[in-house]
Amino acid sequence: MIVRQAVGMFVGILAGATLSACSSAPAKTGLSEYGRYQCGQLDVTITGSENENLVGLEYLNRRVLLKPEQSASGVLFVAPGDPDTRFWSKGERATLTLRGQQLPECLEPGAIESSFRAIGVEPFWSIRIENGQMQLTRPYDQQVTDGIRLNATLASRHGRAYEATLGDERIEVRIAHQLCEDPMAGAQYPAQVRLTLGKDTFEGCGGDRQRLFRGAEWVVEDLGGAGIIDRSRITLTFLEDNRVAGRASCNRYIGDYNLTGEGLSFSAQGATQMACAPALMNQERRFLKLLSEVSDGRIGQHGELLLQTPEGETIKAFQSERESP
User: Quick one: which H or E segment has residue 244?
Assistant: First the structure.
């Protein structure tokens, strides 16, 4: 299973060099460094521009210019004429909103979420790291300890490592950004985690599961093994507040999704009422029916999205490399 296979990978994954600085930004922007971020599945790059008062926001096939705005903390940039597109940098983390839709927390390579959670099973344990401190639910006795102050010992593009001392006990947490699967429930997570308490080491998974699905437009390539009609388009985009939207072949649809440790499911989707060729309408009905029956979602070995029904039928989709108009 993925968690156990990760044991031999940790040392190599986290042994990379400490993050190097990117090229310096002009002082007038207020941003000390340009760099790359990952906002869920969306890769974002902050670049310079010919106007020293602006920065460029690059993602997929787009480049948007942003200007600095006043903020109580961090560095805020807003698109001129489009206040609903903004990038708010706070060190190795940032918030990105595109035309009113907020993406998952943006992270520099190797960084962890501002509130990072991880769990392990057999035996059960859990941690939460926030503001440089950790809450630990210990294996075996489930004793909870709050306020454990962590010292960062490694920061690479692959992950982070921390250590702490609790009485006479040494604690170490190592986090690698590699797909991880809970061996009990089968749920996938974006990070592999190793917790060491004294002489004992435990493996687990961590990170926000929504990061595996959000930030991308997923383009369907197969419906239940039957493919799709040539030059037709079926898409899914996972939005904030557990909403999902896309094109069903002919019509646009929108509805809810529910992601838990046990699986992924979708509500009945509301759709527009345009009429298309009969073949497209039949494909649309099949897609919406299969979507309503999905009970699990996972990321395949080639990065594809696999939505599976209890009957074994699968919707397969890949990330779009371009933003849809």
Answer: strand 243-247
